Each structure stands twice: as structure tokens, then as C-alpha cells.
Amino acid sequence: MRVRVTQLRARRTLPVGVARNLIVFLRFVSAGAGKRRRRIWTIQCMEKEKRTEIGNIGEFGLIDTIRETVTLYQPGTLKGIGDDAAVLGPTDLVRVVTTDMLLEGVHFDLSYTPLTHLGFKAVAVNVSDVAAMNAVPTQLTVSLALSNRFSVEAVAAIYEGINLAAAHYKVDVVGGDTTASRSGLVISVTAIGEAKQEEICYRSGAKVNDIICVTGDLGGAFMGLQVLEREKQVFLADPNMQPRLDAYPYVTGRQLRPDARMDIVHELRELGLVPSSMIDVSDGLASELFHICQASDVGVAIYEDKLPIDKQTYDTAFEFNMDPITSVLNGGEDYELLFTIDQKDFPKLEKHPDIHFIGHVTAAAEGKLLITKSQTAVPLKAQGWKHF
Ligand SMILES: [Mg+2]
């Protein structure tokens, strides 16, 4: 198959020290003895060894600490944190609202996920859903459930990531809730966005002969997860072994700190192009195509040799004895945009360096097909992330 090496643009490069952080965390862990101690050491490392119990400052003290770190960017936010509810100004635009919840042990593993990255990711995955509606995010609420393992410094580290993402997407943190948890960490973010009514993209608008487009490259986050899990197991088996992550900066970065494609939403607006349907790739390309087919009552034909994959994703899949196409079709957590456009709009995007044309929409009766590089049509299977 053809390998497309995506240029690592600034927004794609790994934030400084992710891989190094991980090694630091795990080295720190190795100083501990026993499972519980390891966990505590991990968090202490992220907190730079300072620890203030949340009970010492109380919930109101914690809210004050959080509020001091928050910056507002949107003129439409009339009142943010600090009253019984936030107040948003009137607008001529329609609003979109979306919520995503991340649970420790289900969606993330703190033995290799820095809290700051987790905060960023919790915002990014919600912004990605706003982007998938072709809307622009404006406000967020953030709710945290924290066990007593987490200190004021740990919350500050999570909010450092949330605030970095808020600045990156120009979205306001206007409220939320903080509560005690019996075990583990839960982060729930609700995002509000806005768009002109005619700009909103549903999953249901794909038409026969539309061109299927996808941004960026796929499968990287899944392969990054495989690397992180493997190195964790190697380390747990022998704490003297140091994790080998230097060779995987792109895929581990895709897993730990994804970026929602708001840049594409803004570019589409500048081009005056409204996709006929759109969805973000959170559960794997095949699964998202199935959602569009179901909502639009259409079929699809996509071409194996058109699927965008980064060289590091491709090489890592081979190392794990996996077909790279499996990670592309079923990996998930890429947070790229999958959309369809009318053929007349193709010239507007034809030369875009980061949008790939992977196939076309067909009649529902023709099914959902993957055309392999040997020109064989095989039925697509959606084996994406199963939530339940
Ligand atoms: Mg989505």
C-alpha cells in the first residue's frame, strides 16, 4: 500500500517533553514499592512533589483557585464562573451543545497520561464534536469528580491543560462542578458552540456521488495507545526496564494530546464551502462512515490506497504485527473530520495539503465497500470502540 508521510506541522508536533515526561513518571514510579505506592508516586511526580489536600482549602477555596486561572475570550460570555449560573448574551446564531465524559481506567490511564494533557484532551474531544457540526466553540463547563488521591496541585495541573486548550480554541470556561469521588478521576466537559443555521452540518446530508473527505491522517492514536500499553506492561514486569518511547513521538502524541480540527472549520468558512455531511473520527473511520450511511440512507465506496496514514503509524502497526489499515479503519481517537462534499465544490479543496479524498457516496443498496489496492471490493466492517 501507499504510505503518505504527513509533514509534521507545528500543530502536529508533540508538545515538549511528552515522551520525556513519561519516562520521568515511570522512573519515579520505579522508586516506589508495591502497587499503591507506585500510583501515589506517579501523581506526586506530576505535582512536582508539592501536595496540598483539597480539604485544607475546601470546595469554595478550590473554585476560587480555579477561577483565578481562567481567562475569558468570548464577548458573548456576560458572566462566567462565580454565580449560580453563567450568563450568555443573545445571538443571531444557532447553538450546538455537546458533552463528553472521561473516566479513569476506562478512557485514560494515569500511569502514562500527564494530568495537563488529560485536561487538554477533555476539552479537545468536546471541541471536536462542535467542529463536526461545522460550528465554532464558545463556552465550556467542566465537572471533576476527584478521589482523595488528588490534591490541589493535581487539580491545578488538570486546569493548566484545560486553560491551554481554552486559549488554543478561544473558548470560555464558564462553570462546572467539583465533587468527591470514591475512586478515580472523572472529567466531564460540556461545550457550547455557534454557527449560522445554514452552516450546520448533520450526519444526514450525504448525497449519492458526493466526495468523501477526511482530514489529517488516521490510526496514529490507536498505535500510540498500543505502544504506551506495551511499555507499561514491560515496566510492570521489570521496573528496571526503561520504557522505549523516543521512537514513537508522533503516535504517542496523537494518543495523549489530540487536537480538534477547528482549523479546517475556519478554512471551510473562508472558502464558503459547507459540507453536505460531517462527523468527527472518534471511534474509527469505518464506524463513522456507518453513522453517515445510516443517517443519510446512502452507501459508500472508499479506496484503500487513498486512506491517509502517517509513516510512523504504518511502521508501528507492522511492529505490532497488525495490518496498518486496521488501525486506520477501526483505531479511533483520531479526532479528524470526515465529511462529504458536492462534486462542484471539489476544485475549492483539490489542492488542500491536509484534506484527502478517500471515496464517494453511493446508493444505499450498493452497500459500504472498501476497494482494496488490488481493486477488489470488500464489505466494510465497523469494529470501532464499543462503549458498552
Ligand atoms: Mg462525534
TrEMBL record:
Record has ATP-binding as a keyword: yes
Record's keyword terms, sorted: ATP-binding, Kinase, Magnesium, Metal-binding, Nucleotide-binding, Thiamine biosynthesis, Transferase
Protein name from the UniProt record: Thiamine-monophosphate kinase
Residues bound to Mg(2+) 1: 99-100, 177
PANTHER family found in the cross-reference section: THIAMINE-MONOPHOSPHATE KINASE (PTHR30270:SF0)
The species this protein was found in: Cyclobacterium xiamenense
EC nos: 2.7.4.16
Lineage, broadest ranks: Bacteria, Pseudomonadati, Bacteroidota, Cytophagia, Cytophagales
Catalytic activity: thiamine phosphate + ATP = thiamine diphosphate + ADP
Residues annotated to bind Mg(2+) 4: 84, 98, 129
Extra remark: Reaction mechanism of ThiL seems to utilize a direct, inline transfer of the gamma-phosphate of ATP to TMP rather than a phosphorylated enzyme intermediate.
